[in-house]
Design a protein that fits this description.
The chain has about 190 residues and is of the alpha/beta class. It is built from six helices and five strands, in the order ααββααβαββα. A five-stranded mixed beta sheet has the order 2-1-3-4-5. About 10% of the residues have low confidence. The structure holds zinc ion (ZN). The site of zinc ion has 6 residues, from helix 5.
Length: about 190
């Protein structure tokens, strides 16, 4: 997540997804219409994203829900604030969720909702945490590992493969990123 995902022309999906052999990875229409149950969580993740920008971090936010839809953990990118290279929103939200979840680190049945497509580290963490589902907003053609540049989460060689809902409220989720980078270029 080094650049805003929508500040450059969207690549041809057929080439952006060349790292995956899953034709089903093509997101099609915004899945929020078919799955409105994740809208409140994505709105909360967006509020987290804006909190990251307040301390100079790239605005990405994440929320982990349990199987019943209860919020277990939230997080936003705080790499700059803390100097921690692993300080991505998803890692922070997964850690928070693991402390409140009944089964500890095994987030079986849980859903990771995040405003930007996870990178390789975060996609790997989601698989390791055994989340059932990843719902992400803006695609990240440059570093996304849930269908764009790579598809770490649905690699057939893995035992655990979370379901993915891509491009969920993607325009809303890209907005804080576009604002953040536009502001940074002006300065
Ligand atoms: Zn990440």
């Amino acid at each position: 997540m080094t650049d805003p995902p929508s500040a450059r022309p969207r690549p041809d999906p057929s080439t952006a997804r060349r790292g995956s052999d899953l034709s089903a990875a093509d997101p099609g229409p915004d899945p929020s219409a078919a799955h409105p149950e994740y809208v409140p969580a994505m709105r909360r993740a967006l509020a987290e994203a804006r909190a990251a920008a307040e301390h100079g971090d790239i605005p990405v936010g994440a929320v982990v829900l349990d199987a019943a839809g209860t919020v277990l953990g939230t997080g936003h990118n705080d790499r700059e604030r803390t100097g921690d290279p692993t300080g991505h929103a998803e890692i922070i939200a997964l850690r928070a969720a693991a402390t409140t979840h009944a089964d500890g680190w095994r987030l079986t049945g849980c859903t990771l909702v995040v405003t930007l497509e996870p990178c390789t580290m975060c996609a790997g963490a989601a698989v390791a945490a055994r989340v059932a589902r990843i719902v992400y907003g803006a695609p990240d053609p440059k570093a996304g590992a849930a269908g764009s540049l790579w598809d770490v989460v649905r690699d057939r060689r893995l035992n655990h493969r979370p379901e993915v809902l891509a491009d969920y409220l993607a325009a809303d989720c890209a907005e804080p990123l576009i604002e953040f980078f536009a502001h940074r270029r002006v300065r």
